[in-house]
# Entry
Amino acid sequence: MSTHYDVIIISTGSGGGIVAYNLAPSGKKILLLERGGYWPREKDNWSSKTVFIDNKYKAKETWRDKDVGRFHPGIQYNVAGIRKSTARPYCVCASKISVR
# Structure
């Protein structure tokens, strides 16, 4: 069984969330995709030291670069966007998109 969407928005951070909000009244069938779960509701979320210095929520994955080789990005995935200054939302628009 396949499901058809008019628009797929990858990452509902600040840009993707605005796109979704503006398209919602259009009547189009919209799919929102996220990577990662929700931020836990805890006091540590409010501590810049815990989040950015201690890297409590930093992703454990390893990336590869042709010049640097293996490295661990300073990235944290969560619903409503990833925390990294170079993050960009992506919007795929087509007359019909099938997701299987």
Remarks:
- The chain is about 15% helix and 30% strand.
